[in-house]
Amino acid sequence: MGTEKNISDMKDKEYNKSKKRRRRRRRRDVSRVQKLYETCKQIFANCGPGVVPSPENVERVKAVLDNMTEADVGLMPNMPYFKSTLSDGPPKIMYLHLHECDKFSIGIFCLPPSAVIPLHNHPGMTVFSKLLFGKMHIKSYDWVDNLLPHQSTPSANISDNDTRDWTGLRLAKLKKNSEFTAPCKTSILYPADGGNMHCFTARTACAVLDVLGPPYCDPEGRHCQYYYDFPFPNFSDGLSVPEEQQNKYAWLKEGEKPEDFTVDGALYSGPDIIVN
Fold first, then answer.
1. pLDDT tens across 208-220, in order?
2. For the segment 70-83, what is each residue's pLDDT rounded down to a tens digit?
3. Which of 4, 126, 138, 246 has the fewest CB atoms within 10 Å, measured from its CB?
4. In sequence order, what DSSP letters do the residues of 189-229 get, joined into one string?
5. How far apart are the first and last CA of the chain?
């Protein structure tokens, strides 16, 4: 009886060890995309429009994204998405949808060389952008809301034959205006800071993984608004800004989505996201 009990105990111990090995193997086998989804699900659970995750939670998402490359999402630079085609219009941008719920979305923009995502905003959102590969120029702005009460209606030095509509301008401060080359750290913007309005220009073929929390939602008023930017010196509004600082400001004007800007959907073929 004692021998049988010892054998049974040994089997139980070996079974438990085997279970632990399988659990460790499963943890090791979890894709980075799955880890990104699970992290976002946790940190955005109690967030909403205008609510920024805690600094610790922002770092959790950033830590996952910082280590991701195109291989983690099943992309290669020689795929058709990233090749320029001979046409009269601008290079076509493709969007790969990975996940979207009412709390956050995950997707990838695939840009051929010279492709441009025009200046646009992210109302009430915290946004993580990870350049997976390639070289990209990023220009971004934040609103200047505490300078002067008349900043939204500047008086322009306009010639008599200038028929453009200069009303509705709003002052913004330049946050970024530089090139990024992968591998690089994740860019983060917030509802009122970090460059909430930004523009991407592909210097080479590149891919950008975006996490938006919460995502755009027209019924809730979170729609994508496009802007045109004008140099600060073009207008005078009694603003006292030293000449050497004027290149850090610009006037932004809302506009329709540029007619030549299109984004087509494409099938994501990377590791599956298991929604739980």
1. 999 999 999 999 9
2. 999 999 999 999 99
3. 4
4. E-SSSS-SEEEEEESSSEEEEEEEESPPBGGGTB---EEEE
5. 46
Q: Which residues contact 167 (CB under 8 A, 6 or more apart)?
A: 153
CA distance 31 to 136: 26
Enumerate the domain spans of the chain: 19-154+168-266
Instruction: Find out whether the peptide bond into 80 is cis, omega within 30 degrees of 0.
Output: no
Question: With b meaning 16 or more CB within 10 Å and e meaning fewer, what string describes 160-194?
Answer: eeeeeebeebbbbbbbbeeebebeeebbbbbbeeb
Total-model pTM:
0.82
Tell me if 116 sits within 8 A of 90, measured CB to CB: yes
Residue 79: exposure state from Cβ atoms within 10 A (0-12, 13-18, ≥19) = middle
The fold adopted by the segment(s) 19-154+168-266 is Jelly Rolls (2.60.120)
Q: Nearest 5°: phi and psi at 148?
A: -140, 150
N residues, the chain: 276
Is 113 in contact with 204 (CB distance < 8 Å)?
yes
